[in-house]
Amino acid sequence: MKKIIVLLGFAVLIFSCSKNDSILEYKILPITDAKTPAFFEYGAIDTIAVKYELPDGCHQFWSVYYKYDNNKRIVAINAINDLESICTQAVIEKEIKIPIHISQQENYIFRFYKGKDTDGKSIFEEIEVPVN
Fold first, then answer.
1. Domain count of the fold of the chain
2. pTM
3. Minimal CB count within 10 Å: which of 12, 76, 80, 121?
């Protein structure tokens, strides 16, 4: 009986380590272009549109990175990179619309992530949107 349990455990161990498991890397991608409305209406729901690029076919959109601090918002794209797949090398341009619930009467300051400079510091494009 003990030999059967050991053999079953060994079989589970071998089959759980299949070659189909991929190694994934999470990345933050820059915003290439952002469109905001001229103003927001307090209490309404509005949208901003952002464009970004997936560097190749191994990258996939994961989520919107949206961090806020008072009236400032940092916006970027979270992506997954499959490190073990064979991929197309073509850059894939995408656009996503992000709904914004206008819950404050202060102007919104969006800081769109643009990448890093030569010193490794993050670069942002700031756009201020007034609230009526």
1. 1
2. 0.78
3. 121
